[in-house]
Design goal:
Structural class: alpha/beta
Number of strands: 9
Number of helices: 10
CATH topology of the largest domain: Rossmann fold
Strand content: 5-15%
CATH class of the largest domain: Alpha Beta
Helix content: 40-55%
CATH superfamily of the largest domain: P-loop containing nucleotide triphosphate hydrolases
Distance between the termini: 28 Å
Length: about 260
Amino acid sequence: MPELLSFDQIIHTSLVMRNLISLARKVAPTEAVILITGESGTGKELFARAIHSESRRSGGPFVAINCAAMPDSLLEAELFGHEKGSFTGAVASRKGRFEQADHGTLFLDEIGDMSLQAQAKILRALQERCIQRVGGNTLIPVDIRVLCATNRKLAEEVNRGAFRQDLYFRLNEVNIEIPSLREREDDLDPLIRHFIAYYNTKYGKAVRSISPAAFEILRRHPWPGNIRELEHLIHHAVLMTEGDTIWVEHLPMRL
């Protein structure tokens, strides 16, 4: 995935996506904290990268972290860094993602999966605009813009006590909700053509089209994995195709 990505590179023709990109472009040059929501595979990180690239911080780093990918014991050190000797294996001091993103953008992906304890530390860092490394005593100022993403409905998580209300309000200055692929059927054809062209180039293939019957199968598919699932499927189909057309038999049998 490229470090800089413009909104013009997000494949779409649907009205819902045009309106969404228009909103994102309005808030990109600001310092607003943006909460990007949507199902897995809808392209939340692509939006975050496009917002960064059209912001006043585009010359600074874009630093992403998946908050669901590690336990609290590792997440704190990953976010805030650590000092030498602060725990077993800490043989040298290390900057965390907050410091790495200084003068740029920090993207907290899947923030809805954070524990309440981790949420409290994120809230404090956002409020005070400074962090403290694990094992350290010094407050380190950070100049960052924060973008967040989640596939959870955070308002519901707040109601059931799984997400801090004060952090939710802090993160939700602007909400960009990316629709599922099921809700943007007009984008299916250009996305298919885009992925065919990409994998043609990658594998030296010459696929030119998809048969009407194969396209109809894709159109009726519910796409639980959204665009990520579509890309994997077209990847498979291009590999299976020996001619210039994707036929039904080139699609995965599970469809």
